[in-house]
Amino acid sequence: MLKIENLHVNVEGREVLHDLNLHIKEGETHVLMGPNGSGKTTLLRAAMGFSGYDVTEGRIFFKGRDVTELPMHERARYGMGIMFQRPPTISGLKLGKLLQALSGAERKVIEEYAKKMHMDDFLDRDVNSGFSGGEIKRSEVLQLMIQQPDFVMLDEPESGVDLENISLIGKSIAMLVEKDRHIINRHKSGLIITHTGYILDYIDADAGHMLCDGEIKCDGNPREILKVIQEKGYQECIRCQKIL
After folding, report:
1. What is the set of domains in the chain, with CATH numbers?
2. How much is the pLDDT for 196?
């Protein structure tokens, strides 16, 4: 689904990622952890094709196709989706209109999706304007649900969210990455950044990675990696990997 080889990324003239390799197979969901400033968000934005995230070396493959040079909208059209950690407020654009533009769906269908995320009263409001943290996250998940991408990247979906919203968002994300029962052998995939690990209560993650100083330092069982980080900090993961 996603294959990243020897990736080097510069942001504002500074190399943030270097020699990064990652392989996510069809139907797999991976979890990415790491300290602030380690390059996690840069990885997601570079994979999605955001401007300002300059790939200076390496390649990005999506569903077997080299997308390194493709613009963001082409990658989205090909089946990539992303949820931001801090999405912008878009004054003058109603949420319902945005969902219609993303999906081409009729208002009735959009309302059905919105009800699932308790967002049906927000369709005629400007996108993220006056939304609480939990409402912004629900809006982001709703946008992904109606797009139905094959591969989703989520940047700290549980941050700034209360327990009630975490449950709703977690269950909805699980639906985004589960097998599509209507299409034989079609599996959706995901890459999720998490600091708290709460999202692991709702998804069946296949692998975990610890990113530090622009490199993936550790791969393994996501719950085991999280436990070590919680008990001993990120440096213990790095030390352990060096010993291995």
Report:
1. 2-243 (3.40.50.300)
2. 82
